[in-house]
Specification:
With 262 residues, the chain is an alpha/beta fold. Helices cover 44% and strands 16% of the residues. The termini are close together.
Amino acid sequence: MPRRGLVVGNWKMNGSIAFVQALTQAVGRGVAERERDRPLPCDVVLCPPFTGLSVAGQSLTGSTVRLGGQNSSEAVSGPFTGEISGSMLRDVGCSHVILGHSERRTLFGEGDAGIARKMVAAFREGLVPIVCLGETLSERTAGHTLDVIRTQWLALCPALPEEEEKRSHWVLAYEPVWAIGTGRHATPEQIQAVHGFIRQQLNDHLGATIASRIQILYGGSVTPDNALAIFSQRDVDGGLIGGASLKADTFLAIIDAYLEKF
Ligand code: PEP
């Protein structure tokens, strides 16, 4: 049975309340129209900025489209000015949370160990962590891509829950840093090479059953024009979409590309 896919919109720090409301409603309507023909083979998650989560949740009442946070704290509550906890995300209706995005790593100094601690917190709160990893251009040019991916992934291993059935309830997003927001996406062959490597790592460390259930997304300048070629790769289970998720028609066209895989 094919793995269920996942298409995630990461809106980053964009959008007034009115913008969030209009875009969520438009995506919700578009997904509902597609569901009239057949159940979708993928879930759709929208990650507006924190200030838009509440209104986005209201706009998605009755929709299968789900909500995610763009980051969350490793702490439960307390004196952490500017932070948002996993339970707060749950409270406002989130099912998912993006962790370790390269913008968090490069602009806000997040490292593998801290990301693993955030992952533990997300599991504790019942959120599905979408954990990003990927190499910089200089790391790729130097031929270190797979070493970087291995190091980043191995740092996450201790954060996985003990319970067998929960160990596949998370998502990996391969996002080459040089492809994020640059208009320069990795080729389908480069993407499959890394996704296949990640799948093999999952298989070696977690066993075949769990490895076969974990979704691996690609992110980095995905557009309606390149989405089908990327999604057609064997180990690509969907996408983490930045810029192209800020317009309903382009985001829905990317979802359509995923539907074409089946
Ligand atoms: C992202 O921010 O996760 C991303 C993939 O951005 P973009 O699609 O704009 O490259």
